[in-house]
Write a structure and sequence with these properties.
234 residues, alpha+beta, three-stranded antiparallel sheet, 11 strands, globular
Amino acid sequence: MTAAAVPAGLELLEHLCRVAANASPAARGLVSTATSGLLGRGWLPSVDSLIETTAHTLDIAPHDLRAELPWLQQSGLLETAENRVISLGCLFATRKTDLTLVLDDKHEVSLLGPLAALAAPIALQHAGVIRGRCALNASVSLRLSADEEGVHTRDPEGVALFLPAWLAVGTPTSAMAAGVFFADDDALADWQTQNGDPAGMPIVSMFFAMAASDLGGKLGQALAPLFSHLPDFD
């Protein structure tokens, strides 16, 4: 599929699948070790300390790990600022967001957006609960239950979402964070009207399960090798 043939709203998914397939062992090791620390402790050390830990744990030369940083930044697979990691795999944020994934009722991590929510349990190969709020009415909470195969229950049942178009303007992580969930189709339609019908892919409740399986499955499976060094959270 060429870039021109990618439907509006799926450009980011195609980009992430492509770069994940090209990630080197050193790049995968760095993202995996960082994610393990974030899920296990809830915070991460400096980038310098992360490189040292990854080098020791996976027996990869520190200079090989550091050499991957520019590519990881550009691809959106690891975002840093002031020697700190701020996002991982274009799925997880180290700073609190309104969308979270809870593993084993105790390991909680912030998610960047709805596409990240659909993909994360599959990428981690671990069941969890996704908690968020309706983008039109923040007083309405959303809860999605997922396992290694993706989202299987949702509350409310009418959950919908919007994936914005991404024409490589802005970072992949900002594009991921621009996606939004809604409590129902009416909220989605009202939000589109209020925002001038932005370019992208609206996914109404009728097609939510299909999107969760197809889109979440494709991205989650593509990103899974980035997290191959994660421990079991039992």
